[in-house]
Design goal:
Number of helices: 4
CATH architecture: 2-Layer Sandwich
Strand content: 25-35%
CATH topology: Alpha-Beta Plaits
Largest sheet: 5 strands, antiparallel
Distance between the termini: 35 Å
Mean pLDDT: 94
Structural class: alpha+beta
CATH superfamily: 7,8-Dihydro-6-hydroxymethylpterin-pyrophosphokinase HPPK
Number of domains: 1
Shape: globular
CATH class: Alpha Beta
């Protein structure tokens, strides 16, 4: 069984309801949710002309391989009305695999650890809340060390 951290974000509609429904659907897909961070409100990243986001991170366990997990998460996003029209654009739900055990994957379709997580307050803040001593498999720093090193 793999230990995985999934980042969740929403900035359209009832943002909190989309996050809660995304977590509920992960459970229905056989993903065991161990812990969920607090939900924080953050400014958009990248494309800034859009509503504020709600973000959190979940610690889960799964028998899914990384690619099968990606497929399941994208299916859940589609179920919840996710449209992919603008990179980093508005969305009902975003489910990102941040870390999958200590695995490093770099393919065109899937990159683990999430390539930009070390620069994202909205990832590192909730991740540090639930796993402050978790070590990034590439940078060798804990999540709290990474959080303390970013500019907000």
């Amino acid at each position: 069984m793999a230990e995985v951290y999934i980042g969740i974000g929403s900035n359209l509609g009832d943002r909190e309801a989309y996050i809660r429904k995304g977590i509920e659907l992960m459970r229905e897909f056989g993903i065991t949710v161990i812990r969920v961070s607090s939900i924080i409100e953050t400014k958009p990243y990248g494309y800034t002309e859009q509503p504020l986001f709600l973000n959190c991170v979940t610690h889960v366990e799964t028998f899914y391989s990384p690619l099968h997990l990606l497929n399941a998460l994208q299916f859940i996003e589609n179920m919840l009305g996710r449209k992919r029209s603008i990179r980093w654009g508005p969305r009902t739900i975003d489910l990102d695999i941040l870390l999958y055990n200590s695995v490093v994957i770099d393919t065109p379709r899937l990159k683990i650890p999430h390539p930009d997580m070390v620069n994202r307050y909205f990832v590192l803040k909730p991740l540090s809340e639930i796993a402050p001593d978790l070590v990034h498999p590439v940078f060798g720093k804990t999540m709290i060390e990474l959080l303390n090193g970013i500019k907000t």
